[in-house]
C-alpha cells in the first residue's frame, strides 16, 4: 500500500511536470502552423537547436512519459468505475480520465511513430515535418482519428490537473474544487480548439511543397 501511494504520487506529478509541459509545448509548436509553413519550421528549428536537446528529450520527456503511460494503464486496468450505479459528475470524470488515458497512450505512440521516429531514422527531415503533417491532415479518416486523439489528450491533461490539485492538497474544499473544475474544463476547450485549428492549418496547400519554396526559407 505504501509503495502504491508513492507510485501514484510520482505518476500524478509526472503528468504535470514534465509531461504536461511537453503537451503544452507541442500545442504551441503546432499552433505555429496557423501562421504558415515558415513559422512552423522556425519553431521546429529553434527547438532542435537547443543545447543537449537529445538528452533533455530522453530524461525530461520520454522516460517520464513512459512511466506515466505504463503506470497509468495499470491504474486504468485496476480502476473500478461506478458510473452506471451512481452517475454523478466526478465519477463520470473519473471514468473519462481512464478512457482518455488509454486513447492518448495509443495516439501518442502512433503519432511519435509517424513523426519523431521517422526523423530519427532519417526518413523525414525536420524541415519536412510540415509536409508529413499535411499528408496526415488531408486524409479524412486519419484527420478524424487525430481530432479524437488531441481532444482526448487535452481532456486527460486538464482533468488530470484537477485531480493533481486535489491529491496534493492544493484545492481542499468543495468551493475550490468547483472553481477548479470550471477553470480546467475551460482550459480543455481552449486547448482542443487550438489543436484542431493546427490540424486544419496543416491541410493548407502551402504545406504540400518544400519549405525552400517559400520566400526567405
UniProtKB/TrEMBL annotation:
Ligand binding (heme): 26, 68, 111, 156
InterPro entries given in the database record: Cytochrome_b-558, SQR/QFR_C/D, Succ_DH_cyt_b558_Firmicute, SuccDH_FuR_B_TM-su
Coiled-coil residue windows: none
Main location: membrane
Entry's localization field: Membrane
GO molecular function: metal ion binding
Domain of life: Bacteria
Keyword Cell membrane found: no
Single GO cellular component term: membrane
Gene3D superfamilies per UniProt: Fumarate reductase/succinate dehydrogenase, transmembrane subunit
Matching CDD domains: SQR_TypeB_1_TM
TM regions (residue ranges): 12-29, 49-74, 95-113, 141-170, 182-202
Keywords for the protein's UniProt record, in alphabetical order: Heme, Iron, Membrane, Metal-binding, Transmembrane, Transmembrane helix
Protein name: Succinate dehydrogenase
Organism: Paenibacillus ferrarius
Amino acid at each position: 500500500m505504501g509503495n502504491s501511494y508513492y507510485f501514484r504520487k510520482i505518476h500524478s506529478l509526472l503528468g504535470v511536470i514534465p509531461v504536461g509541459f511537453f503537451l503544452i509545448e507541442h500545442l504551441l509548436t503546432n499552433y505555429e502552423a496557423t501562421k504558415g509553413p515558415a513559422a512552423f519550421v522556425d519553431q521546429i528549428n529553434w527547438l532542435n537547436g537547443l543545447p543537449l536537446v537529445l538528452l533533455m528529450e530522453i530524461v525530461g520527456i520520454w522516460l517520464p512519459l513512459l512511466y506515466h503511460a505504463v503506470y497509468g494503464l495499470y491504474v486504468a486496468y485496476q480502476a473500478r468505475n461506478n458510473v452506471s450505479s451512481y452517475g454523478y459528475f466526478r465519477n463520470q470524470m473519473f471514468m473519462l480520465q481512464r478512457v482518455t488515458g488509454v486513447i492518448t497512450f495509443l495516439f501518442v505512440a502512433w503519432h511519435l511513430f509517424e513523426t519523431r521516429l521517422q526523423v530519427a531514422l532519417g526518413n523525414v527531415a525536420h524541415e519536412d515535418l510540415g509536409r508529413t503533417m499535411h499528408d496526415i491532415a488531408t486524409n479524412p479518416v486519419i484527420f478524424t482519428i487525430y481530432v479524437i486523439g488531441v481532444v482526448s489528450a487535452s481532456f486527460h491533461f486538464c482533468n488530470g490537473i484537477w485531480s493533481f490539485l486535489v491529491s496534493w492538497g492544493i484545492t481542499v474544499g468543495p468551493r475550490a474544487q468547483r472553481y477548479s473544475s470550471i477553470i480546467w474544463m475551460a482550459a480543455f476547450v481552449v486547448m482542443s480548439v487550438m489543436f484542431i485549428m493546427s490540424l486544419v492549418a496543416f491541410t493548407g496547400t502551402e504545406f504540400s511543397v518544400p519549405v525552400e519554396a517559400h520566400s526567405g526559407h
